[in-house]
């Protein structure tokens, strides 16, 4: 029997700033270091990014092991992964980044993040066009094409997802008073994205959410109404079970072995602020 494979690689998950405070303070339970607005905002962003990274890992590791009868379901898994990414980055460019710059009173401070979006845009679009063609019956599914596509855009994407966290923490220099509405801004953007995801997108998120990440620190994430949470993990999950089975988590948010997987090593190493030359060693999750 093949060894269980989990969606924690080849692309690394992002530790949250809030969890880092706990790790850096051995007396956390006695004298906890209190995260501020910037820690909280960057941590929630990291949690969203980690769903995308788990999903990308799940696609990468399973792509070459998909039965012919399940190829379209797997392609739907890919499309829902991209939908979350597309909505997230659209919200950033159209709403979040411009308002952050207005709050700070400095134009261009988020430009590097937008430029990173553009860096992986073309190969990602080509990959999604191929996936849609497979669903439409215009092309045959080929797991090697999926893996090669991710080798092209994946490292650029994951580098961007990791780099955005210190960018948000860096907004601390503009002061709490100027940036105090940032949590409300991100909450509104998240609500807008959730509406755009639809039922299948909601199920996809649950299928790639680790409810026990970082010692159960994020059990209440994402902040959804109880009925939505219940339906997303029961009725909606059942309706989209063909797609959800490829996720990294079960419907209760517990990480599980991937449904159809084999280990694959990426051809290009991800470079983040922590892994670039002369950078300090990256803390483990």
Automatic annotation (TrEMBL):
Signal sequence bounds: none
Name of one Pfam family that matches: Hemerythrin
Coiled coil: none
Ranges where the Hemerythrin-like domain occurs: 44-164
UniProt cross-references to InterPro entries, sorted A to Z: Dimeric_xanthone_biosynth, Hemerythrin-like
Source superkingdom: Eukaryota
PANTHER family: EXPRESSED PROTEIN (PTHR38048), HEMERYTHRIN-LIKE DOMAIN-CONTAINING PROTEIN (PTHR38048:SF2)
This protein's name: Hemerythrin-like domain-containing protein
Organism: Lasiosphaeria ovina
């Amino acid at each position: 029997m093949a060894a269980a494979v989990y969606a924690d690689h080849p692309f690394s998950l992002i530790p949250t700033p809030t969890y880092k405070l706990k790790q850096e303070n051995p007396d956390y339970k006695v004298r906890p270091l209190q995260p501020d607005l910037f820690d909280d905002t960057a941590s929630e962003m990291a949690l969203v990014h980690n769903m995308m990274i788990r999903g990308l890992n799940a696609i990468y590791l399973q792509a070459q092991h998909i039965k012919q009868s399940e190829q379209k379901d797997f392609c739907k898994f890919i499309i829902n992964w991209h939908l979350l990414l597309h909505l997230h980055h659209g919200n950033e460019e159209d709403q979040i980044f411009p308002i952050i710059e207005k709050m700070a009173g400095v134009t261009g401070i988020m430009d590097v993040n937008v430029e990173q979006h553009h860096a992986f845009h073309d190969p990602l679009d080509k990959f999604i066009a191929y996936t849609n063609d497979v669903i439409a019956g215009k092309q045959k599914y080929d797991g090697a094409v999926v893996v090669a596509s991710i080798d092209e855009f994946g490292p650029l994407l994951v580098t961007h997802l990791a780099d955005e966290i210190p960018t948000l923490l860096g907004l601390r220099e503009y002061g709490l008073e100027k940036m105090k509405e940032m949590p409300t801004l991100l909450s509104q953007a998240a609500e807008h994205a959730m509406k755009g995801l639809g039922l299948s997108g909601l199920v996809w998120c649950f299928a790639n959410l680790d409810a026990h990440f970082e010692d159960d620190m994020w059990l209440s994430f994402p902040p959804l109404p109880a009925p939505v949470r219940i339906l997303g993990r029961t009725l909606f999950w059942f309706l989209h079970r063909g797609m959800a089975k490829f996720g990294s988590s079960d419907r209760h948010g517990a990480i599980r072995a991937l449904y159809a997987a084999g280990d694959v090593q990426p051809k290009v190493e991800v470079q983040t602020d922590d892994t670039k030359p002369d950078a300090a060693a990256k803390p483990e999750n």
